[in-house]
Amino acid sequence: MAKDNIAPSIPLQPEKGPQEQIEAHEETNRKKFGTLSGVFTPTLLTILGVIMFLREGWVVGNAGLLGSALVILLAFGITAATGLSMSCITTNIRVGAGGAFSMISQSLGLEIGGSIGIPLCLSQTLAVAMYIFGFREGWLWIFPNHPALVVDLSVFAVIVAIAFISTNLAFRIQYLIMAVIAGALLSVALAAFTGSMQYPVQWWGSFPGAPETGFSGGSFWTVFAVFFPAATGIMAGANMSGELKNPRRSIPIGTLSAISLSLLVYLALAYWLARTVPPEELLRNYTVMIDYAFWKPPVLAGLLGATFSSALASFVGAPRILGALGTHGILPGGQWLAQRSRKGEPRNATFLVAGIVLASLMMRNLNAIAPLITLFFLITYAVINFVVIVEQNLRLLSFRPLFQIPRLVPILGLFGCLFAMVIVNPALSLIAGVVVVVVYGVLLQRHLTAPFGDVRSGLFVAVAEWAARRVKLLQAHSERVWKPNLLVPAQNAQKIRGWYRLLFDIAYPTGSVKLLGITSADESDELEQRLIDSRYAFREDGVFASSSVLELEDFSQGITAGIQALSGSFFRPNLLFLEWPHSDVGRQDLDHVIRQGLDQHLGVALLVEHPKAGLGRRKRINLWIPDQAPDWDIQMRFANLDLAVLLAYRIQANWHAALNLITLFESPEMRSQADDFAERLVNSARLSGVTERHAMAGPLTQNLAIAPQADLNILVLDLPLEDRNLSEACMLTRSTCLLTHDGGDESALA
Predict the structure, then answer these.
(1) 195, 306 in Cβ contact below 8 A?
(2) Tally of CA atoms within 13 A in the half-sphere of 687 that contains its CB
(3) Residues 14-66 pLDDT 10s
């Protein structure tokens, strides 16, 4: 193979790939955040949100102290298991930008990561509008005469301004909000210590329902569905993974600490509410936490601060996910979305998120899709748990997390998330699942290229190995599952190109093609590259293909070596595709090669190509049935006829061609037996495409010239070949012939 001997005087630097560009970008001087500012604070503030201030009292009023404690523990148990799974993942990989998207993509591939990341990003964006609406409700409680739209747009403008100034400013403001929420909780604590807890505990409630429904009744699970969104929000810190100094350390510590502290706060508040407020008022008054606090203004400020901080954290996190999706080309205009400012801010992604939030605010009511936002978060949590389950069970050497968790934890997290989805809204859960599947299907068609490896191949190999062991244990016949898996030896790629259409029509849709190149060492590189091109062509058209090259001078020895090497594999070829050689030298070895294939239970398809007609118009096929005397019986296994019938059926279906069934018989008195055999064969083998049946007396060579004209004649191959010249069949039929010999695993009647 020719080589270019001219060396450049200046060494050229290779263009950086996507991952290298990301890593280079992360080494810029932009501000990065630690555990407290980057993970703990936004996660804690998102969990300690509006439900804590406005709905926990209602939960206690419905369920009682014990019931509400069970609701809180169950909800936090699901998110804690997910937090542990997320910590396990982040200590095993180099987490990139995008939080959950990065974690899932590096394990299950960009397609699954994108199918989760896109709805997650949209949910995070719509959540900003939901939190702004929550802030407005608290604001109007103080200033009822202020126009609602003006309040919404004002809060939105402040959030956008903070985010555009810098992420660092947003996190500094969150410290202030944390101080405000701490002041609200301090006001509650002072009320407890100054004698507010004067009522006996109602351990278990009667679940009367909500005032909006006229207290028509409820259940433990309806209360759980209302409270559960409070326990979500654990991704607020993980979404900033690309902005963290050490995400491997910060995400586990910050997330788990925030979950633990918020759990204690919710349980303590439940006890205070149960002892401080009568159950009847807990059910009717959503602002009991404000009304019964030691001092109302701090609690009201805490309510406003909680909704504002949640909106701010979501608005800061959503563009990071969007930018990561753009970096990997998952969204249209990905490069534009991935662009960052000199300070490292995802400006373009922030513009788009701001536009979506503004459009959402103009809708004025998102109650209909509010549960869908929670459900997309739950799907994300479920997939994170699933990733850990897969990694743990594959037992790959690459899975060495610094934070080990028991196998039961991700299992509980996965089923807990799925259970919570059904409880929150079964119908919308189905819709959310369909959305994820549709997005996955679209991304799968785009053939995305990831700059990192994932474990999908390991997962498929594990399933294949398990299935292979089960098949071996069954010790069953394989006639029902037989499909053409071709082994195609070739000395040059031009032959493969010439045979491409026929090989495809034999293999499609469930078969496969193994291209075996055999050539000298000098030409192996060129042949290998050309076979790779053919391999990709088959795959693009829907047939799985693989290729390899043997460096051997002798072609027949190469075929024999390939057959022997593949004989021990589980997914091995079962059909040897050969060409009738034009030289006498090649014919001497052909019989030996065929017998080698038959010894390994490979069927044989021998192509005798007409030098001028080729495969013609691919409109008509002749299938020749040899004389079956004396019995003319239909049996489960014919005498070397099964492969011919199966290939005729497959090619005829792919060509949409007419199929002529030609049955040979020796003496005139056998005509009726031949006709009856042909009819029974058509019915038993389900050859619905047969258009004509012919019974012809005499030997094969006598009838080839007078048979109906066809583009392909399929005949049974008789051994030994010896001095037979099969090219004569092409001349007599004026068309290409395909001769077959059964390998022993085929059955036309299976």
Answers:
(1) no
(2) 30
(3) 444 444 444 444 444 456 788 888 889 888 988 888 888 888 999 999 999 99
Looking from the CA of 237 toward its CB, the CA atoms found within 13 Å total 36
Kindly report the pTM of this predicted structure: 0.69
Tell me the average pLDDT across 690-716. Answer: 91
AA letter at 19: Q
Structure tokens at 167: 């992420």
Looking at domain 609-750, its CATH superfamily turns out to be HUPs (3.40.50.620)
pLDDT band at 345 (very low <50, low <70, confident <90, very high): confident
In order of 261, 655, 662, 667, 697, the CA distances from 625 in angstroms are: 80, 21, 6, 15, 12
Distance of alpha carbon 503 from alpha carbon 719, whole angstroms:
24
CATH 1.20.1740.10 placement within the chain: 32-110+127-445
Sign of CA dihedral 317, 323, 325, 331: positive
739 vs 714: CA distance, rounded Å: 6
Cα–Cα separations (whole angstroms), residue 432 to 118, 366, 437, 543, 740: 12, 16, 9, 32, 52
φ, ψ at 665 (rounded to 5°): -145, 155
Tokens 């989805």 found at: 421
Has domain 477-606 been given CATH number 3.30.450.20? no
Domain with CATH 3.40.50.620 in the chain: 477-606, 609-750
| Other beta carbons within 10 Å of 498 | 15
Right CATH for 32-110+127-445 from 3.40.640.10, 3.40.50.12780, 1.20.1740.10, 3.20.20.140: 1.20.1740.10
